[in-house]
Amino acid sequence: MKISRTVETTAAPAAVFAYLSDFSNTTEWDPGTIETTRVSGDGGVGTVYKNVSEFNGNKSELTYETVELVPERKIALKGEGKAVHADDLMELSPTGNGGTRVDYTADIRFKGALKLAEPFLGKAFKKLGDEAEEGLREALAKL
C-alpha cells in the first residue's frame, strides 16, 4: 500500500530538511506514531530509529534506518518489523517564495498472513495519509 502526499510550507528547504531528517520528529506530526527514538547513529545515513505506531487499532514496532540523505533534497528510510516492511521517501524542492514543497511517499507492505488483509485496508490507509498530511503541514508551519 502506498501513501503519497504533498505539503507546501513557507519554511526554507534547509529548515525542513533538518526537521524531517531527524525521524524522531514523527511523534510531532504523524498521528499514528506513538514513539520514535534514535537507537544509534548521528542522524546521517545508517542512523537507526525504533518506531512504535498504531494502525487500525493494532500496535507495531519497526526499526527504521536512514538509507539516503541529499541535503535539502531527499530523505529515504527503510523500516522493518515482524509483520511490516516500509520504505519512506521525502523529496524536497524549493518553491518560488523561498519555501519548500515536500513530496512524501510511504510504501508499506505486510508480511505473511497480513498480506491477505491489504485489499481491505484502503480506507484506513487513506485516513492515515490524510491525518499525517495535516500533521506535517501544521508542524512545518511552525518552523
TrEMBL record:
Q: Read off the CDD domains from this record.
A: SRPBCC_10
| UniProt xrefs under InterPro entries | Polyketide_cyclase/dehydratase, START-like_dom_sf
Q: Which domain of life is it from?
A: Bacteria
Q: What is this protein called?
A: SRPBCC family protein
Q: Which organism is it from?
A: Nocardioides aestuarii
Q: Which lineage do the record's taxonomy fields give for this organism?
A: Bacteria, Bacillati, Actinomycetota, Actinomycetes, Propionibacteriales
